[in-house]
Amino acid sequence: MPLPTQSSTQHDNHPLLRRPAQPPITPGSATTQKAPLSLPNATGNLPPAHNALICVALPGLAISTEHGQLTGQGLEGFYRAGRRMLSRCRLRVAGREPLAIQARMIAADQARFVATLSLSADGGPDPDVIVERTRYADGTERITLRSAAHRHLRLPVEVSLGTDLAELGAVASGRAGPDLPASVHDSGMRWSCATGHSVVTANPPPSDALASAGLLRWELELPPGDTRSVELRVRPTGAGPIRAVARAATSPIAPARAVSDDPRVQALLRTSIEDLQALLLRDPVHPSDNHLAAGAPWRCGMAPAEALAAARMTLPLGTRLAAGTLRTLARTQLVGAGPRSGLLPGPRRHAGTHLPPSCTGEEATLLFPVVLAEARRWGLPEQETEELLPVAERCLQWLRTAVGDGTYLSDPRPGGPWRCETQAHAHRAALLGADLLDAYGRGGGPELRGWARGMRAAFQEDFWIEDRGGGRPAAARLSDGRIVPHLGAASVHLLDTGLLGVGAPAQGLLDKVQTEQLARLLGGPAMDSGWGLRSLGAKEAAYNPFGHRGGAVRVHETAVAVAGLAAAGYEKEASSLLRGVLSAAEAFGHRLPEMYAGEQRTEVGAPLPHPAACRPAATAAAAGVLLLTTLAGIRPDAPAGTVTLRPVRGAPLGEIGLTGLRVAGAPFSVRVSRLGLAMVEEAADGLQLGV
């Protein structure tokens, strides 16, 4: 019997709006580090962002429409650290707005807009001037005029500027307010309010500046075939240019590359890595530690569970992102006496119409030892692992305390519900945590394995619903014994068992027959939309193709399903989901949003965007890495000096080569042939191929 949602679920619990590192459900937890760019509570509907061109190089954002002009409407503007530095930037040439003809992203932090202008008196079809605007997330805009005329042109150029210096949350909720008055400043304009200042400088300096209208003017001489450019720079008063983490030589994400019979593979990996780099943030107190923001434009701060999940999926690109994320979150862990000791704080997450909100703090706490254990397998140095081990021990102790004498872990509070996916997270944490404790001679491993063994035996009885179709896992059980029977993508976490030594996956909660049945269900038309895995089956009550937990395709869950199905040997189902997401990625310009509608795919259709989805999003970009590296089946064990390959034998995308990955701290390259045979082409010295 389904549970109704709690009436207390507000916008602050919405997955697109929540603050990172909030206390869990109960009040009174320790204060955690404030994220630099999280959207505060909003009272209205979010303005649509699905058709926006969003340039990202955090803490900088530039949000535009396809017309290229910044009009101050909606979310348009240049942002820095969550504040809109410039909301209006309208270009006029010869007294007219150029005609927009193309807008496209050329990198994660750059967008290019092309427009034309006809000046001939005869009104012919050919343009006389091509106007190109390149907009950067760091607050730079370059406007280039190129003459296609046969005569010398003298062009008056005007740029109308304005800003409200509003916070992104105020912009999103319609509370931004009017433009502030401008003043002429140096070679541009300046705006001020009680909470901030913004300056636009121009090169070359304008010939005229009108503060009352926020207007800069130039008279440009343009010979036939020649070009002239104007560059605008937007930033807070006294601030230098943005130094994005990805631009530093110390970026923690390896610049891996892919080649394949399927050209979409190369584009997806390249764009995924660009998006990950664009979302990198530094811990302000410990700047050597990097982590990922959840996504733009709504969630430009850390969401602990998602930061860990993304870091885990990107371990093939190196362990430094995982290490920085773990260290950053370790500093937020609750310590001291009490049942919440060892918990990593996290906000609520809306769970759809069938269950009350879950606590992402529990998920993050269970992910911490898993990410640490697997990062060690991929090559995290032993010293760094040992430094983080006490934090992982406290996470595991919290798990044992939270379970107590019971069998299952409730979420979000004592008394249930007992969610299927929470048990999968807890079981995996126990097994990988025990393996980690054993490796360093710490106690507690046998007790964790014993609890996991007992939970596995009970789970196969308590959480499995027999029916005429072969059965299914329950979404949750209630404290009174009732079950929540709907089939959703949360069940894919039952297939994500984690990596142990010598390339062996950990044991899962389902037996072989149940695993086979789950694979059949995930590959069936109710769950596989043709574009990826629906978050709720199409035959379930309250199915909504746009519901972020009620039917939309969530890229992270689809990638977990593909990896889990492939590891369990169900390559047909894994390949179908993989091809679906790859086709969706192509439709989205290879920049995957965090979710999109779960409408059934048709021959002439395209995936429908979700208007409130983040794009780029950390888990979606990381999912692109996981999807492609799953094809090679890389299972490293750096402490043992081995790497095992379990490629998808059906080679669903043909031959694929992956270069520039990282295993055991060194470059790693692998190729999978059209026959599904894998070959290591580059690896660390002494790394042996496992059986």
From TrEMBL:
Location of the Putative glycogen debranching enzyme N-terminal domain: 62-233
| Polar residues bias (residue ranges) | 1-10, 28-43
Q: Name one GO biological process term.
A: carbohydrate metabolic process
Region ranges (Disordered): 1-43
- Transmembrane segments annotated in the record for this chain: none
Highest taxon, organism lineage:
Bacteria
Write down what this protein is called: Glycogen debranching protein
| Organism of this sequence | Streptomyces liliifuscus
